[in-house]
Design goal:
The structure holds two protein chains of two kinds. Chain A folds into two domains: 3-213, Alpha-Beta Plaits (2-Layer Sandwich); 225-267. In chain A, 33% of the residues lie in helices and 22% in strands. Chain A is built from eight helices and ten strands. In chain A, a hairpin with a 2-residue loop joins strand 4 and strand 5 (96-99). The longest helix of chain A is centred in the last third of the chain and has 41 residues, at 226-266. Chain A starts with a strand and ends with a helix. The mean pLDDT of chain A is 92. Chain B is mostly helical. Chain B has a single domain, classed as Formate dehydrogenase/DMSO reductase fold, CATH 1.20.1630. The longest helix of chain B has 32 residues, at 207-238. The chains are: A alpha+beta, B mainly alpha. The interface between A and B is large, with 55 and 64 residues.
């Protein structure tokens, strides 16, 4: 039975306890960052930051409202990273999409393919230079969940914004919460992740449109148009073969054939 | 940034290798097998280019020593997997074809007491398969050119994935740069050296043929220019707002100098101008003009790959 994480953004207070719990459980070091004018820190997900709270600011009247978003791997049913991985290192284990750290070659294709920018190469600072290594991302704490525990971020969340369990149950809880929000002054409230990419395993209760949170309205699978893209290249080659090369060198052959014929006549 | 200049060089040289063979094969076959040297030149240059591109891909990996993992799976849904296999098979077939062509340069029954002649006589009986291999190589050359565009298109980066035109653009550019490479080699005399290597007399190619190759190159260049306009306009107008802003990194943003001066002016307008000027003059193209235009086409092809690879990751 598929399980999922339910993230109620209407309850999130931006404490970033989930970020710390994630780093602690997964032995990921802290990042050295600079103040860039917001409490949001670090600025981006990375090979050592697998979840973080994005502090979206929205101006409502004369006030600024925060729309927090817990970013990280969505564990898509139809996962782009899994499709584009050339070595098969990225695979589904139940609901969880896992990068096999022993098999990943660090090509970075999954990084470009992810519609949520949730996969990153590990950049290790070695002797002043950066070295690219394997792809890293949220594992949904599979080492915890396969032993009856909840993911570390869920366990630590003090605002009860995070929940973990059977996906059907999480959907029901999420929809009930959305209905309650809609009835209480949040007409735009909605559940995100039920159908996107054949179903995400991170479900979001949002109080505004996905775009206000920086989420894609309709995330696309990276290889949706793969056949058309290959055909685009192949047909271009065919057209360019037919037009310039055929015209110019067919004429050359015809001209020489003509010369031979007229030469024969003179003799 | 995940992919940097090594990837741009791979996409450039792999496309150029495929484009050169594609053009060479067509010119030879369409003209009634009058230019058998051209496919040989294209392979002789193409195999090292493909190997260089593959080497750069491996260097760019996070775990270089695991590169062999690529060849434990065949995953048609992954352009990276397809590309790895295409590069490998193309290089292998190219090496076999070069060896067979070279073995044919020895007279049958010729006795030369060298190791090379002995080797040539051993592989020479296999020479008739060149015919089949040359068609397989054509197919692989088309896939090789297409892979460079599909690799970037099958992602979620707006500049690469918003339209289907990136593979079209890269294939046009691959044939443009490949034809330019052939012409450059023929004009510098390197082609005659290669002719001698493959058992020919090293005679220069007739100037009408070289002018015809120049004309073909110019037409391909015009097609590439049209596709470039369609690609930039298409992503800006039909893509998402993010895609439109990704285009501006190329057109007005940090990469705008490289784009306008490198890709448009140096890589397309100046070489096309030179080419059309010599065509209008109705005389044999001046060597200096051809060398300049073909070199600019090659450099422009690299800058195009660089601008697209870097620009796609800036948003």
């Amino acid at each position: 039975m598929a399980r999922a994480m339910l993230i109620d953004e209407s309850r999130c207070m931006g404490c970033r306890g989930c970020q710390v719990a994630c780093k602690q459980w997964n032995d990921n070091p802290a990042e050295e960052t600079e103040n860039w004018g917001t409490y949001e820190n670090p600025p981006e997900l990375s090979g050592i930051t697998w979840t973080k709270i994005k502090f979206n600011e929205k101006v409502v009247g004369d006030q600024v409202k925060w729309l927090f978003l817990k970013q990280g791997c969505m564990h898509c049913t139809n996962a782009s990273c899994e499709s584009v991985c050339p070595t098969g290192a990225i695979r589904h284990y139940g609901e969880t999409v896992i990068v096999d750290q022993e098999w990943c070659i660090g090509c970075g294709y999954c990084v470009s393919a992810c519609p949520f920018d949730a996969v990153h190469s590990l950049h290790e600072v070695t002797g002043g230079g950066e070295e690219k290594a394997t792809a890293r991302k949220c594992t949904l704490c599979i080492d915890r969940t396969s032993n009856g525990l909840t993911p570390a971020c869920v366990k630590t969340c003090p605002a009860t914004a995070l929940d973990w369990g059977d996906r059907g149950e999480m959907l029901a809880k999420g929809n009930a919460r959305v209905a309650a929000l809609q009835a209480n002054g949040h007409p735009k409230a909605r559940l995100y992740g039920e159908r996107e990419l054949a179903g995400l395993h991170r479900l979001y209760v949002l109080v505004d449109e996905p775009s206000a949170y920086g989420l894609p309205e309709s995330p696309q699978h990276a290889t949706t148009n793969l056949l058309g893209q290959w055909l685009g290249g192949i047909i271009t080659a065919g057209v360019l073969a037919a037009v310039p090369f055929w015209l110019l060198f067919k004429r050359q052959r015809a001209a020489e054939a003509k010369e031979e014929t007229s030469g024969g006549g003179e003799q | 940034m995940t992919w940097e200049w090594p990837i741009a060089i791979d996409l450039w040289v792999a496309g150029m290798a495929g484009g050169a063979y594609f053009a060479a094969f067509l010119i030879d076959r369409i003209s009634g097998r009058k230019h058998p040297l051209l496919p040989k030149i294209a392979m002789f240059l193409g195999v090292p280019l493909v190997l260089l591109g593959s080497l750069l891909l491996v260097v760019d990996l996070g775990e270089q020593l695991r590169a062999w993992h690529l060849f434990t799976r065949f995953r048609p849904g992954s352009a990276m997997s397809m590309g790895s296999w295409i590069l490998l098979v193309y290089a292998l077939i190219g090496i076999v074809m070069i060896a067979l062509w070279w073995s044919k340069s020895f007279e049958p029954g010729e006795v030369r007491l060298t190791v090379l002649a002995g080797l040539a006589s051993v592989i020479r009986p296999a020479a008739p398969v060149i015919g089949v291999l040359s068609w397989i190589a054509l197919l692989l050359a088309v896939l090789l050119m297409s892979y460079t565009g599909v690799l970037l298109s099958a992602t979620n980066q707006p500049l690469w994935a918003s339209t289907f035109l990136l593979p079209v653009l890269f294939v046009a550019s691959a044939i443009f740069t490949g034809t330019a490479l052939l012409l450059l080699v023929l004009k510098t005399g390197l082609g005659r050296l290669l002719d001698i290597l493959f058992g020919g007399k090293g005679e220069p190619m007739p100037s009408e043929t070289m002018d015809a190759i120049g004309k073909a190159m110019a037409i391909v260049g015009v097609v590439q220019l049209v596709v470039l306009v369609a690609y930039v306009g298409g992503v800006a107008l039909l893509g998402t707002p993010t895609a439109a802003s990704a285009v501006t990194t190329m057109t007005v943003g940090p990469l705008s100098f490289l784009f306008w001066a490198g890709v448009v002016l140096m890589g397309l307008l100046i070489p096309l101008g030179l080419q059309f000027a010599s065509m209008k003059a109705k005389r044999e193209a001046i060597v200096g003009s051809v060398l300049t235009s073909t070199s600019l086409v090659l450099i422009g092809g690299f800058i195009l790959r660089l601008v697209v690879v870097l620009g796609g990751q800036m948003i």
